[in-house]
Amino acid sequence: MSGGGAGAAFFALLRRDLLVMWRRRADALNPVLFALMVATLFPLAMGPEAEKLSRIAGGAAWVVVLLASLLSLDLLFRPDAEDGTLEQLIASRQPLALMAAAKILAHWLGTGLPLLLVGPLIAKLLGLDDRAIPTLAAALALGTPLLSALGASCAALTVGMRRSGILLALLVLPLVVPVLIFGAGAVEAALTGGTARPALLFLGAGLMLAVPLAPLTCAAALRLNAA
Amino acid sequence: MVENSDAPPLLEARGLSFARNDEPIFGPVDLAVRAGEALVVEGDNGAGKTTLVRILAGLVEPTAGTLLWQGAPLDRDMRDAKGMALLGHHLGLKPELTPRENLAFRAALDGVRRGMTTEMALRSVGLEGYEDSAVRTLSAGQRKRTALAALLLSGASLWLLDEPYANLDRPGHVLVDRMLETHCQRGGSAILTSHGLSMPALARVGRLQLRVTPP
Q1: Does the distance separating the beta carbons of B105 and A16 come in below 8 Å?
Q2: For chain A, how many structural domains are there in total?
Q3: Which domain holds residue B29?
C-alpha cells in the first residue's frame, strides 16, 4: 500500500475541485459576471452626476464583491454531500479539517481570486478615485479569503438542509458585516486622506484567525451532518 | 484454509447498538471479521443495515458498544484504521470527471494496493474504453463499476459494502462475487449488506441477521 498521506490527499482534493470547476467553468464564472453586471448598472441608475456615485464607490464595490462571493457558497460542500464524496473523505480517516481547508482554498481560487482580479475594474466602473484603488485591492486581497473562510463554516452547517439558500445568507451576513465595514473603511480612509492601515490590520487579523479556525469548524459541522 | 484463531479479528464490534431520538434502530449486536472472511449483514428494509455499515466506517457514532480494529479500540480519528474502504449508496464519484480522474483522487485519499494501477482496476471491472468519458455520461451500472474499481485500487484490507449488487446486471453480480473471492483469498475481508435477494457465492461467509425494531 502506498500513498494516502495527508499532504497528498490535500493536494489531490484541491486539484480535483479545481478540475471540477474548470469543467463547469460557465457556472464558475457566475460570481464575477454578477459583480460586473451590478457594477455596470450602478452608473446607469445614479444618473449623469459622476461625483454622486464616486462618493459611495468604495462601499458599493465592497457590497458587490460580498454578494457575488455568496453566490457560489452553497456549492462548496453540497455536491460533495450529495454524491458521497463527503462520506469517502470521512471514511478515509484523513484529517477532515485539512480536507476542509483544501475545499476552502479551492473556493477562494475559484471565486475570491477572480473577484479580487476584477476589483479594480469594478472600482473604475463605479467611478472610484484612482488614488483609492491600490487600497481597495489590498483590502480585497485580505477580505476575499476571509469571506470564503466565514462562508465555508456556514455552508458546512447548512449542507444537510435541502433548501438552505436564504438560511445560509442569514447565517453568513452578520458574520461578514465586519469584513464589509473594515474593507469599505480602508477605502474611505484612502479617499479622505486618512490612513487605511488600521482597517487593513483588522482584516489581516481576522484572516489570521479564520485560516486555522474555519477548517476546524467546517470539519465539526460536516461530521455532524454525516451522522 | 487454516485459521489462526489467536490473531485478533480485523474488525470486531461488541454490544453495538444505535438509537435515533431514543428510538432503537438496531442492536445490541456483536460481530467479528477475520482476515479472509466475509460477513453478510441481512435484514429487511429499515433493519439498520446501512446505519451499521456507516458506524463501522466511522461516519456515525454508535449509541453504545465498542469497536476494535485488530484488537485495539477504534478511535474516530485513528489513522491506522485506514485499512477500510467504503462503498455506499452514494458512490463518491464526481460526475464531471472521468473514471480515471475519479480513481486518481481516491488513490490519493485511500492509498493504492501494491502492484495495482488505475488502468488495471478499470479493466478488471470491464470499463476499458470508458476511462476518459465523464462519469456523468455513464450508466448507473457503469458508475457502480467505477466505484468497484476504486475498491480494487485501494490498499484497504476491509471492504465495507452497502448493497454492492444494486444497479448491477448479471455479469456485474458475478464480478462482485469474483472480486470478493479474490479479496478474501488474498487475506482481505469484507462486510456487506443484503436484503436477502442476492447472496455472494463465497466459500466462507458469515451471516448476521438484523431485525426491524417496531417503533
Answers
A1: yes
A2: 1
A3: 11-209
- Kindly report, residue by residue over A25-73, the tens digit of the pLDDT: 998 899 999 999 999 998 888 887 878 888 889 999 999 999 999 998 9
What b/e string do you get for A96-115 counting C-beta neighbours within 10 Å, with b at 16 or more?
Answer: bbebbbbbbbbbbbbbbbbb
Residue A41 within any structural domain of the chain = yes
pTM: 0.91
What is the pLDDT confidence band of residue B167, given thresholds at 50, 70 and 90?
A: confident
Report whether B4 contacts B37 (CB < 8 A).
no
Q: Which residue range(s) make up the domain with A143?
A: 6-226
Say whether B91 and A24 touch across the interface (CB within 8 A): no
What are the strands of the beta sheet with B23-33, ordered from one edge?
B23-33, B11-20, B64-69, B72-73
The residue of chain A with its CA nearest to that of B76 is A93
Q: Is the Cβ pair A1, B109 closer than 8 Å?
A: no
Q: What is the CATH number of the domain that holds B56?
A: 3.40.50.300
Closest by CA position to B106, among listed B120, B93, B123, B89:
B93
Decide if B155 and A8 are in contact by the 8 Å CB cutoff.
no
B138 confidence band (pLDDT: 50, 70, 90): very high
Mean pLDDT of A198-202: 95
Q: How confident is the model at residue A163 (pLDDT cuts 50, 70, 90)?
A: confident
In a domain, A199, yes or no: yes
* B32 assigned to some structural domain: yes
- Please indicate, yes or no, if residue B1 is contained in any of the structural domains: no
Residue A23 lies in a domain: yes
Cα–Cα dist A112/A105, whole Å: 9
Q: Could you say which of B61, B79, B111 has the minimum Cβ distance to residue A2? A: B111
Residue of B nearest to A79 (CA): B94
In a domain, B44, yes or no: yes
How many domains would you assign to chain B? 1
Looking at residue A162, what is its pLDDT?
Answer: 79
A-chain residues within 8 Å CB-CB of B111? Answer: 1-4
Mean model confidence pLDDT for chain A: 92
Q: Note whether residue B6 is domain-resident.
A: no
Residues of B in contact with A225 (CB under 8 A): none
Question: Hey, are the CB atoms on A227 and B60 less than 8 Å from each other?
Answer: yes
